[in-house]
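Need a sequence for this fold. Nothing fancy.
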């Protein structure tokens, strides 16, 4: 019986491998797809069989008309909003994902590094120009409103409950009241003077994660006027994006890879795993069910995190240039590629079940 099951598993692998296209680093829909099949389960249930799953990542569309270098993207409906470094903010019609069309763009003359959108207002981290605020109610006509600036080089902007948190490199976090986006009001500053440059900030409810070169702080922002240090995690890397599910924090740490931290005791972060395959320069991550998707310097990777302590790669899409931030809507992943504009990737999960009865 054991030999029979082994034979069935081998058959499943062979059936899946037939569907695997060869990979190269070309901008080609078929040739730029890497599929790594996995046998996810061997059923012992009556009438069962072998259940195999694999992930398919396929290029759908691309937009690149030399408007700067795409850094970040937000997708709302049929519109993509791209922070494009020297190209400023760009709006694209993606109703046909295979053929994105530019609608408008607005250049401030400074590097647009990140974008966050609340209602019809876009907040763009715009380097030494501060966090720029735009009215995007008409995607065909981007309107500059004002900026939030005290000092520093604005690397990341995050808005939660009418509060703007701006990561400003050497000046820590600047916190603003943006209930009236036409007239932002500065609240306070948070800075940990003992650590390196401040790259990012993400707020989830009363908790905010502040990313530095070499670690991160967790702070209580229930009163934005008086942020309170809770704990810190120190390790190698530039901590540039935190995805938090209420217990686990998935920290993209650039040259440090991906850190998975258990925060059941938020005063004592515990490392669960560090994923860093071939010096992954991880830019952002997102958890989708039992999978985690990350962008790094040269690829989109899909990890199986059903066992958190041992993330396993199940798919990879090799990008044409430096992958930055991304946005996921349904099965579509919208990727900001620094040297390649906006890339739209279709991610599908295929189960192969009940191949045969026992």
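Here you go.
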């Amino acid at each position: 019986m054991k030999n029979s099951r082994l034979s069935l598993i081998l058959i499943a692998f062979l059936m899946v491998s037939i569907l695997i296209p060869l990979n190269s680093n070309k901008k080609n829909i078929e040739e730029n797809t890497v599929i790594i099949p996995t046998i996810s389960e061997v059923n012992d249930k009556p009438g069962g069989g072998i259940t195999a799953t694999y992930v398919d990542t396929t290029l759908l569309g691309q937009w690149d008309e030399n408007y700067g270098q795409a850094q970040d993207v937000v997708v709302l409906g049929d519109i993509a909003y791209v922070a494009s470094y020297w190209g400023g903010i760009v709006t694209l019609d993606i109703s046909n994902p295979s053929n994105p069309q530019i609608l408008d763009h607005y250049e401030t003359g400074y590097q647009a590094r990140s974008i966050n959108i609340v209602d019809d207002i876009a907040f763009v981290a715009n380097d030494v120009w501060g966090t720029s605020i735009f009215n995007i109610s008409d995607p065909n006509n981007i309107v500059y409103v004002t900026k939030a600036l005290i000092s520093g080089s604005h690397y990341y902007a995050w808005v939660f409950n009418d509060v703007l948190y701006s990561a400003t490199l050497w000046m820590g976090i600047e916190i603003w009241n943006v209930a009236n986006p036409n007239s932002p009001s500065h609240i306070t500053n948070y800075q940990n003077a003992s650590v390196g440059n401040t790259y990012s900030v993400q707020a989830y409810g009363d908790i905010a994660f502040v990313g530095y070169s070499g670690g991160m702080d967790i702070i209580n922002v229930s009163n934005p006027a008086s942020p309170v240090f809770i704990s810190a995690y120190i390790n190698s890397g530039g901590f540039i994006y935190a995805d938090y599910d209420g217990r686990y924090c998935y920290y993209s740490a650039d040259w440090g890879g991906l850190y998975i931290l258990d925060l059941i005791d938020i005063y004592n972060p515990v490392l669960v795993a560090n994923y860093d395959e071939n010096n992954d320069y991880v830019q952002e991550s997102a958890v989708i069910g039992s999978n985690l998707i990350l962008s790094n310097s040269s690829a989109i990777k899909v990890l199986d995190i059903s066992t958190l302590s041992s993330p396993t790669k199940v798919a990879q899409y090799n990008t044409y240039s430096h992958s930055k931030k991304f946005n996921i809507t349904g099965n579509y992943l919208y990727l900001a590629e620094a040297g390649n504009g906006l890339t739209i990737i279709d991610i599908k999960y295929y189960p192969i079940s009940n191949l045969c009865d026992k």
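For context: Residues 60-352 form a domain with the Methylamine Dehydrogenase; Chain H fold (CATH 2.130.10.10).
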